[in-house]
Sequence to fold (412 residues):
Amino acid sequence: MPISTQKKNCFIRMTSLAICAFALEKAARGFFSRIQATQTPTVSRVGRCLGKPLSPEYVACLCVLSATSYFWLAAALVFAMGRSAASTPVGEMRSLKGPVIEGIDRNCVEQLSREGVAQWQKIWRSLSDFEVDFSYTIYQDYSDGLNSPQENHIDFIYCSGTAGKLAIEPGTVSGTNLRYAFTVGKANEWYLRNCQAGGDAAAGLAGGNVSLGDAALQSFGSIWNTRIADMLASQDWRLVGAGFAESRSGNRGIARVKFEYCGKSGKGNPTWQPGATYWAELLPEKQWIVTRAGIEGLRDGGGVELRIQETQRYQEWFEGEIFPAESVLEYEEVVKGRVTEAHVGRFGVPRRLERPEEQYFLPFYGISESAVPQLGVGAAHGQRVQLAITGLICLVLAILVVWRRQALSPRQ
Fold:
């Protein structure tokens, strides 16, 4: 449960504590009354164990102390549950403003371009032939405390193989391969929910939750799904800040970079907006992995200015290679100064993939690939059109060659 409803959480905890205290007090009072009425066998047994007789009042005091101990134990448990439930701070008055990055350290840029890009490629090559449990939770609170916040959660198995990728849930499988993306469901048998030609590029349209796993997986070298290597190489991005933070241990410490988008709005990605700045903090001593990144000056469809920040945590897997462990993506409405939304993705421990390659294709589920647009009949039609255009071009070129030869030949 998000922390945005602090008053609600406090009320629930206090009510639980009051109920516990009332129940314990009633139990202690009843037991004390019974002890005062008679010398119970319990008192006799306790007295024999201690080697001396105990008065009912003395045993009653022990009962009250025991009840008090149980009360504080219950209080600690309830408070801990409240703290755990509030671990994702949605609704807080908190700024996601990024670090100040002034000037461009050419040495930092050179090392990032040379070492960083090479290390990211190495990590990317290692992220294959595995499957891993993945959970994704979205917390939202746009109500300013007037209504309950929203929480949506999903769990699935993310698979990455040489033939494609899969997101497997109970009764649903989403997948991509080199030719198309698809989502199938199962009632009595498998049926097609959605499909789109285009492979990984179509994952967001028809690949279901594959795109969620992809985005979290590539966070080690990206700023919100945009690879820093591509930003360095593209003319649509302008580097406006780069440098190393001071380190007490004598190494390069944290590297910081900041870009400004100067291309067309929404070109290839709706989060690319002219004038917005995109920053990242990286660890050069740990394969230049991104630990924190963000965007400032971004606006949503309604013109509301946003700040976005993503924090990464990593783990190691096969032969000590880097693997993402957790990604927390937060949104702040700048005018309100409130964090209104958070996306939390968590990976389990990855394991080697042992699934047949056929599972990445529709026939494995008893569905023909002719159901995919631009495949089957659609593909054949497209090929015929391409052949016709090619033939027409060849005919025009042949006419031009003949005409040119006649123009250059000597007149009789």
In short: Residues 176 and 200 are 6 Å apart (CA to CA). Residues 1-10, 78-87, 376-390 have pLDDT under 50 and may be disordered. Residues 376-412 form one domain.
